[in-house]
Amino acid sequence: MPVTTRREGTTAYVTLDFPPVNAIGRDTRQGLIDALDWIAAQAGLERVILSGAGRAFAAGADAREFDGPALEPHLPDVVNRIEACAVPWIGAIHGPALGGGCELALACRYRIAAPGASIGLPETTLGVVPGAGGSQRLPRLVDVSAALEMIQTGRPVTGVRALEIGLVDELSEDPLFAAEAVNGELLATRVAVGDLPGPKADTAAFSAAQDRGAARYQGQFAPGVAVELVRLACDMPLAEAMALERARFLELRQGAQARALRHIFFTERGAKAPEWLAGVEPDPIETAAVVGGGTMGAGIAYALLNAGIGVVLLETDAGGVARAEANVEKIVSASLKRGLIDEAGAQQRRRAFTATDDYTGAKGCDLAIEAAFESMEVKRDVFQKLERTLRPGTVLATNTSYLDVNEIAAVLEDPSRLVGLHFFAPAHIMKLLEIVRGTASSDRALATGFGLAKQLRKLPVLAGVCDGFIGNRILARYREAADTVMMDGAAPWEIDEAMVAFGYPMGPYEAQDLSGLDIAHANRRRQDATRDPSRRYIPIADRMVAEGRLGKKTGVGWYRYPGGGGKVVDPLVDDLAREEAHYAGVARRVFSEDAVRERLLIAMINEAAAILDEGISGSAADIDLVTVAGYGFPRWRGGLMHYADTLGPAKVLEQLAEFGAEDPVAWKPAALIERLAAEGKRFSQA
Ligand code: COA
């Protein structure tokens, strides 16, 4: 039963019980209606305590229902009946009370939360707005600027913060127990939130919300609608405003953005070890060796420390050890300063960390992750040492971004121990983890990679061996398409603007300036020997490197960064592109923003289709996860392949043919696209 009821004396208990997180679907709504009918038939009740079984109060509307029509009974009716109930309800919130869960709590006369509970209206993160009075009741209860921020951003607050802003009335480690103790007379005098007056229209709060919208939510509908709904709360009666809120919610939930965000939400939740690894036990990881204490190694070390894993960081000499220690300490103190950890947490991380240049220090470790310099020679040397030092069978992982995992494994006596664990910088923050399966990788080594991802709360995606795996291989095509458009007529900032307008947080050139142009340069040199000579090569980036324009770290790259500050357009770069075009005999032309975008997106889709067809990636959804979680592809477009499906393979093929008329080599369609177009199927069905 998704809702259970019982009575003890003058108290009725209504418990949401739909594992794992009490998502509110039709049966739960019906269960609450039944509970309300049951309560109406009871005499002598003083209070009703609403709580959730398991780890959550309620995770909001069951988003799995959102693809179909809205089913009766509707949540606004349930919520209104709770609020109007003759017996006052108390919300006992021990865990997440989100979306519809928060709306149920708002209908109660009194709310008690555990300090660590998370309470909020995250609907905009799913491309919708509250649909059962949340946007109207929350601003009646808390300051309008706090309500605006919560509803627009979708970010929940903790129980502690909820008390500060007046969203809950009391904090307790045991909210159910505290609900039983609430004074009956006090409870009887409580005014329903819906009967409180609407808030004053606070101009400053609304203009702050507008600025936030312009800065963060370009192109997205729901955050703007959310702000408009809060505005309604200021001057429209509750019932009328709730009807409008409901209409906007229903409209948004069937729209493309909400569908895309739901797709990513469920894809993220589904990111786990594949079926065929079920039953393979991962090695338990209590301590890990990390090789290399640069930015990446230090970030990985900190991610491990965060998960309670002890770290032995291996470096080549005393200087390397000191640098590694400083790099890790920098992250510990920054986390402390930002309030992400407390002093005790910082000390605990420091105690669990050692750096050494003596490999025997890592002897007892349960896993090793190599994050050394990106050179085959260096890596093979490291793995030989690790194999000699660590217990036989201990899983060994390489964090290489491009190098051939099979070639690295070949240096080992037992190559089945090796997998790729490709972290993304900064490794303690970025959620994505590509788990690279070498030809020889054992199931246990792979399962251990997935087990580690779970421990680190990362999103694992299985990838096969190829140059760049899933993400960097697509990135290489993206950059190639951008460079070609630049050579043929667009300025780098125009290309960046086109991609930002699509929803990327920054364009390809600004991103390169941040990461540095030298890494991609080294990669191009590595690829020189195997590059298809019939493929057009754009040398502009090489010129940049030759002139020392390595990006932000040198103060100048595709943009200039005067005084280390923000980016400034540099016409010299445009001159450089013109010069190269002249040498190559290219007649430059004007590209519209759409034309730029289409080329970059279609190039990525084409490469991703090849990746899927070759089995480098197991599913289109995995590619969506990689592009969103690791490469800034707009979440609200659902990831690269979800977006490709909104165009459809036939349209993609048509565009490839159009661009192919200019350059048949670069725009040769992946066989999968031709097949899907012929069969009338989508990428998600590949
Ligand atoms: N609708 C449908 N299913 C939901 C759901 C929702 N609103 N919220 C969570 N689930 C499912 C997840 O898909 C997952 O399913 P699975 O086990 O089949 O993979 C399961 O519940 C557990 O969720 P998970 O996120 O892994 O658990 P958690 O304990 O880490 O986090 C929450 C719990 C509630 C914090 C988190 O699930 C969440 O934020 N949910 C969405 C809340 C939301 O946006 N509500 C508004 C809806 S409009």
Structure description:
There is one protein chain. With 686 residues, the protein is α/β, with parallel strands linked by helices. It folds into three domains: 3-254, 2-enoyl-CoA Hydratase, Chain A, domain 1; 275-463, 3-Layer(aba) Sandwich (Rossmann fold), CATH 3.40.50.720; 471-685, N-(1-d-carboxylethyl)-l-norvaline Dehydrogenase, domain 2 (Orthogonal Bundle), CATH 1.10.1040. It is built from 29 helices and 19 strands. The strands form four sheets. An eight-stranded mixed beta sheet has the order 12-11-10-13-14-15-16-17, with helices on both faces. α18 links the parallel β16 (432-437) and β17. α12 packs across α26. It is globular, with a radius of gyration of 28 Å. It starts with a strand and ends in a 7-residue tail after the last helix. The mean pLDDT is 96. It binds coenzyme A (COA). Coenzyme A (COA) binds next to α12.
Count up the domains.
3
CATH level 1 name of the largest domain: Alpha Beta
Structural class: alpha/beta
Second CATH tier, the architecture of the largest domain: Alpha-Beta Complex
Number of strands: 19
How would you describe the shape? globular
CATH topology of the largest domain, anyone?
2-enoyl-CoA Hydratase, Chain A, domain 1
* End-to-end CA span: 38 Å
Helix content: 40-55%
CATH superfamily of the largest domain: 2-enoyl-CoA Hydratase, Chain A, domain 1
Biggest sheet architecture = 8 strands, mixed
What compounds sit in this structure? coenzyme A
- State which percent range the strand residues make up: 5-15%
Report the mean per-residue pLDDT as an integer.
96
- Our Rg estimate from Cα atoms comes to 28 Å
Low-confidence stretches: none
Specify the number of helices.
Answer: 29
Strand order of the largest sheet: 12-11-10-13-14-15-16-17
